[in-house]
Design a protein that fits this description.
Helix content is 51%, strand content 13%. By secondary structure, the chain is of the alpha/beta class. The chain has 4 domains: 1-129, Zincin-like (2-Layer Sandwich), CATH 3.30.2010; 134-296, no CATH class; 335-371 and 424-591, von Willebrand factor, type A domain (Rossmann fold, 3-Layer(aba) Sandwich), CATH 3.40.50; 376-420, no CATH class. The strands form 4 sheets. It has a 6-stranded mixed β-sheet, with helices on both faces. Strands 1-3-2 form a 3-stranded mixed β-sheet.
Length: 598
C-alpha cells in the first residue's frame, strides 16, 4: 500500500523481493538494489521511533518502519502487507536536521505535518487494507481501480477510529496529492477520474471539507460529464462502506469504475488546443483555491484548538487555585477557631449576660427561620396491583380481561398517594467585623448580633452553624461554629492593616459557605478602607462565594463606605439595626436555599 495508488502495484511486485533482502553485497549476496542509498547515522534511530508510533496509529505491533532516502516503490512511503514493512522516504524530512528529529517526543510531529500525514496514511493501510486481489486478478484494470478506491476508503476507516488524525491526512493531501495532480495537469477522462478519486473521494471520506473541493468539481464535471462524475461518486462512496477484508466487493467496485469510464461518453474527449489550455488554467485555479481554503480552514481549526486548549488550561489553573485557596482557608480556620484562637490576646474585652431584648430577638429569629426553612411534603402517586389504595374500576376491568385471555396482567388497579417530608435546609451565617479605629460604633451591635444569630441557629436544627470573627492585624474568633454562647462576647477596636481576606477565608472554610445544601450568608461590617492588596484578594473571595450561591451582606456604620464589588450594601443610620438586618438576610437565605447537597 502506498500514499500514491501507482506505488501499490510497485509494492506488490517487490514484496517477494523483500523476503530475500537480508543479504547484502559484503555477505556474498546480491548487490544493493538501485533504490537503496546510504543512510544518515540518525535514520535507524528515527526508524525505531517511528515504529513505536506506528504501533499506536495502526493498532498493531508487528509493523516495522524503515526511514531512509528512497523507497523501493518510488513513492514517498509504502506499506508491504506480506512482510508488514513500512518504508518512509527520509526526503520528506529534508527540511530538518536529522539530529533534531525525535518522533518519541510529544508534539515533534508538529514540525513536519505533511510527512506525519504520509505516515498516518500508511498506518491506515496497515490497519484497514486487509484485502488483496487473487493471484489471477492482480494487476488487472479492475485491481488498479480498486487500488485507487482503497486510498480514500482506508483513510475513511482510519478517521472513524482515530478522528484526531484527520488534520495530518489533510496536510498530506494538500501538500503532496493536490500538488502532484497540479503538476500532471490531467485533461483526459481517465486522469480526471483519478483526480476525483483522490480528492473528491476524500471529501466524502471526511478528510476534506465540501467548500474546499467546490472549485475543483466544475472542472472535473467539464471533463467527465455530470452523469459520469455522479456514477463515480456512487462507486467510491460504496467503497467507503466496504469491510476491510472484502476483496470481492473491492474488486467489483474497481470493475464498476472501469465499466463506467468505458461506457457511453467514455474515453478521452476530443479537446482543441484552446480547450486544453482553458482546462489547464481552470484546474490550476481550482487546485490553488483548494490549497488556500485548506490552509485557511486548518489555521482556523488550529486557532480554535489553541483557544480550547487555553480555556482548558485556564480551567485547570482555576481549579488548582481554588483547591489551594480552600486548603489554606481550612488551615487558617483551624488556627482561628482552635484552642486559644489566633489573635485573641488584647482583642476580647470580656463577656456579659444577654439582655432580655437580645433573648427575645433570638427567639423571634428562631421562629422566623423555622417558618422560612419549612418545606411542603412531596406527594407521589403510586400504582400497584394490590391494596392499599383507591380502586380504579377501569384498571380492574383491564386486569380481569388480561387474566381471562391468559396473558400476564400488567394493569395496576390500586392507586395511592405517598407523602414524604422534604428535608429543611440548615443555616450557615458568618459575620466578620472590622475592628479598626473607625469602627468603634459597630463593635457593640455586632457583638449583640453575633449572640442572637448563634442562639437562634442552634434552635433551627443540629446542622445549622454560625460564627463571628473580628479582624484587624489578626483574625479573632468571637463565636465559634456549632456552639451557642451563653454570654455575649465583647471586644475592642484595634488599629492596623485589616486582614479582611483572612477573615473571609476562615469563615468560608469553617462554615462551608462555598458549598451548596444550606442557606448561606456572609455579613461583613466594615468601612471598606483596606489596603489595595487586601481589597483585590477579598474581591476575588466575594466573587467565588457569590458564584457558589452564598449571599454577601455589607454593613456600613459610617458615611462614605467603600464596599467590595458584588456585595449587598446596607448603610445603617443606627448601629442597633445591625441585628435585625442580619436576621432578615439570614431568613431570606434559608427561604431561598436548595436542599441539594454535594
Amino acid at each position: 500500500m502506498s500514499f500514491f495508488p501507482d506505488a501499490r502495484r510497485a509494492a506488490a511486485q517487490v514484496s517477494a523481493e523483500a523476503l530475500a533482502h537480508a543479504s547484502w553485497e559484503d555477505d556474498g549476496g546480491p548487490p544493493a538494489p538501485s533504490w537503496y542509498r546510504p543512510t544518515s547515522p540518525h535514520w535507524p534511530r528515527i526508524s525505531a521511533a517511528l515504529t513505536e508510533r506506528v504501533a499506536e496509529l495502526a493498532g498493531r505491533e508487528d509493523v516495522l518502519v524503515t526511514c531512509r532516502h528512497g523507497t523501493r516503490s518510488g513513492a514517498p512511503a509504502a506499506f508491504y502487507p506480506a512482510t508488514a514493512e513500512l518504508e518512509f522516504d527520509a526526503q520528506l524530512l529534508e527540511h530538518l536536521a536529522p539530529a533534531s528529529i525525535d518522533p518519541r517526543r510529544a508534539g515533534d510531529e508538529e514540525r513536519y505535518p505533511a510527512a506525519w500525514g504520509v505516515l498516518v496514511h500508511e498506518a491506515a493501510h496497515a490497519a484497514h487494507s486487509r484485502w488483496e486481489a487473487p493471484m489471477g486478478r492482480r494487476g488487472t484494470e479492475a485491481d488498479q481501480a480498486a487500488t485507487l478506491l482503497e486510498e480514500s476508503r482506508a483513510e475513511h476507516a482510519h478517521v472513524a477510529r482515530r478522528p484526531q488524525d484527520r488534520r495530518w491526512l489533510r496536510e498530506a493531501t494538500r501538500t503532496l496529492i493536490a500538488q502532484d495532480i497540479l503538476a500532471s495537469m490531467p485533461t483526459t477522462r481517465e486522469a480526471a477520474a483519478v483526480a476525483g478519486g483522490l480528492l473528491l473521494a476524500r471529501r466524502d471520506a471526511g478528510i476534506l471539507d465540501p467548500e474546499e473541493t467546490a472549485p475543483l468539481e466544475p472542472v472535473l464535471d467539464r471533463l467527465l460529464g455530470s452523469e459520469l462524475l455522479a456514477r463515480l461518486r456512487e462507486i467510491w462512496q460504496a467503497a467507503h462502506r466496504t469491510a476491510d477484508d472484502d476483496h470481492e466487493a473491492m474488486l467489483q467496485h474497481g470493475l464498476d469504475w472501469c465499466q463506467a469510464l468505458e461506457g457511453p461518453g467514455g474515453g478521452t474527449p476530443a479537446l482543441t488546443r484552446s480547450e486544453v489550455d482553458a482546462v489547464h488554467t481552470a484546474l490550476a485555479d481550482a487546485l490553488d483555491q483548494l490549497d488556500a481554503r485548506m490552509v485557511e480552514r486548518d489555521r482556523d481549526e488550529a486557532e480554535e484548538a489553541a483557544r480550547a486548549d487555553a480555556a482548558r488550561a485556564a480551567a485547570r489553573a482555576a481549579r488548582s487555585e481554588a483547591t489551594s485557596i480552600r486548603r489554606n482557608a481550612e488551615e487558617l480556620a483551624k488556627q482561628v477557631f482552635g484552642p486559644g484562637g489566633a489573635g485573641r490576646k488584647g482583642t476580647i474585652r470580656g463577656t456579659r449576660a444577654p439582655t432580655d431584648a437580645e433573648k427575645a430577638a433570638a427567639g423571634q429569629l428562631a421562629r422566623g427561620l423555622r417558618r422560612a426553612a419549612y418545606r411542603e411534603r412531596t406527594v407521589t402517586q403510586v400504582s400497584s396491583t394490590t391494596p392499599p389504595g383507591r380502586l380504579s374500576v377501569r384498571q380492574a376491568l383491564a386486569r380481569d380481561a388480561q387474566l381471562a385471555a391468559g396473558a400476564t396482567p400488567t394493569a395496576t388497579p390500586w392507586k395511592r398517594s405517598v407523602r414524604r417530608a422534604t428535608p429543611t435546609p440548615p443555616l450557615r451565617v458568618g459575620i466578620a467585623v472590622d475592628i479598626s479605629g473607625s469602627m468603634t460604633n459597630a463593635v457593640g451591635p455586632i457583638a449583640s448580633a453575633a449572640w442572637i444569630v448563634a442562639n437562634a441557629a442552634t434552635r433551627l436544627d443540629a446542622q445549622s452553624r454560625t460564627a463571628t470573627v473580628a479582624f484587624a492585624r489578626h483574625v479573632t474568633p468571637i463565636t465559634a461554629p456549632g456552639r451557642a454562647p451563653k454570654d455575649v462576647t465583647e471586644f475592642d477596636t484595634k488599629g492596623g492593616n485589616e486582614h479582611i481576606t483572612e477573615a473571609i477565608d476562615a469563615l468560608t472554610a469553617a462554615l462551608d459557605l462555598d458549598r451548596p445544601g444550606a442557606g448561606r450568608l456572609l455579613a461583613i461590617a466594615s468601612d471598606g478602607w483596606h489596603p489595595d492588596q487586601q481589597i483585590e484578594r477579598a474581591t476575588d473571595r466575594v466573587a467565588r462565594l457569590r458564584a457558589a450561591g452564598c449571599s454577601v451582606l455589607w454593613l456600613a456604620f459610617a458615611p462614605h463606605p467603600k464596599p467590595l464589588p458584588g456585595v449587598t450594601l446596607v448603610e445603617l443610620h443606627r448601629p442597633d439595626q445591625a441585628a435585625s438586618v442580619i436576621a432578615q438576610a439570614a431568613t431570606a437565605a434559608v427561604r431561598g436555599a436548595s436542599t441539594r447537597r454535594r
